[in-house]
Amino acid sequence: MMSKKNIFGDIPTKLPDELFEEILTGKTFKMERIVSRGHASPDGFWCDQEENEWVILLQGSANLRFAGTEELIILRPGDYVQIPQHDRHRIEWTDPDQETIWLAVYYK
After folding, report:
1. How far apart are CA 13 and CA 63, in angstroms?
2. CA distance 12 to 35
3. The CATH number of 19-107 is which of 3.30.70.1230, 2.60.120.10, 2.60.15.10, 2.120.10.80?
4. Tally of CA atoms within 13 A in the half-sphere of 65 that contains its CB
5. What are the C-alpha distances in Å from 103 to residues 31, 60, 68, 74?
6. Sequence-distant (≥ 6) Cβ neighbours of residue 45 within 8 angstroms
7. Per-residue pLDDT tens over the stretch 77-101
8. CA distance readout (Å), 94 to 2, 3, 28, 61, 68
9. Which of 38, 71, 96, 107 could form a disulfide linkage to 29, CB 3.0–4.6 angstroms apart?
10. Is the Cβ–Cβ distance between 89 and 67 less than 8 Å?
11. Does the pTM of the predicted model rise above 0.85?
């Protein structure tokens, strides 16, 4: 039986850690919803992924930084970025006053 879900629904009131929810998987890809509320990457931590990532920000706002640059990429609803595998990056800031909702697709 098909079940309907809402990308903006079922978000816990308390969100001590970012919420990662797998939505869809295939042999060469994975799609997930990420919910942040004031979360950021830990000091000194850089994401270094085995797969490519395409991510769109659906709600809220965030600052993204790539290794080797001081430039912050400000993301607002509708903004998306393509992150090639092993392109080290980190989340510097997400909106502390509302949920920041991302849709991420990871693929080979």
Report:
1. 23
2. 10
3. 2.60.120.10
4. 18
5. 7, 12, 25, 16
6. 90
7. 999 999 999 999 999 999 999 999 9
8. 33, 30, 29, 6, 21
9. 107
10. yes
11. yes
Which residues of the chain are modeled with pLDDT < 50? none
- pLDDT score, position 15: 87
Task: Please name the amino acid found at residue 4.
Answer: K
- What single string gives the DSSP state of each residue in 25-89? E-SSEEEEEEEESS--PPTT--B--SSEEEEEEEES-EEEEETT---EEEE-TT-EEEE-TT--E
The pLDDT assigned to 2 comes to 76
Strands 62-66 and 19-25: unpaired
pLDDT at 102: 97
Where exactly are the structural domains of the chain?
A: 19-107
